[in-house]
Amino acid sequence: MHYLGYLGIQNTYYVGCIKGVGKIYQQTFIDTYSRLAIVKLYADKNAQMIDDLLKDRVIPLFDKQNVPLLRIQTDGGTEYCGKKETHTINTI
Predict the structure, then answer these.
(1) Angle at 37 (CA atoms; ends 40, 84), nearest 5 degrees
(2) Which of 36, 52, 56, 75 could be stapled to 31 by a disulfide with Cβ–Cβ 3.0 to 4.6 Å?
C-alpha cells in the first residue's frame, strides 16, 4: 500500500547557463503518492545541494504535516553516490 511519504523521487536537472552566473541546476523532489513537487535552484551539482534541499524544504514540510518520509529514490548520479571514500552522503 502506498501513501504520502512512502516514496520520494529526487533528481538533478541541468537548467542552463546564465551569463555572469554560470551553470544552473534544479534539484527536484517529488512525493510519488501525492505528486507534490519541491524544487530549488543551485549553481553547483554536488551532494551538499541534495542535503540542502532535504533539510531546507522537504523534511520541514513533511514534519509540519506530521508525515514520516520513509524512502528516497534517485537515479544514482555521481552527486548522489560518488566514490565512497570522498562522498559526503552515505548510501546503502
Answers:
(1) 60
(2) 36
Contact 71, 6 (CB under 8 A): yes
pLDDT per residue rounded down to tens, the chain (92 residues):
689 999 999 999 999 999 999 999 999 999 999 999 999 999 988 888 888 999 999 999 999 999 999 999 988 877 776 655 555 555 44
Q: Please state the length of the chain.
A: 92
Q: Is the dihedral of CA 16, 43, 92, 74 positive or negative?
A: negative
Residue 60, SS3?
helix
Residues 8-81: name the CATH superfamily: Ribonuclease H-like superfamily/Ribonuclease H (3.30.420.10)
Q: What pTM does this model have?
A: 0.81
Please tell me the distance from the alpha carbon of residue 74 to that of residue 81, in angstroms, as a whole number: 9
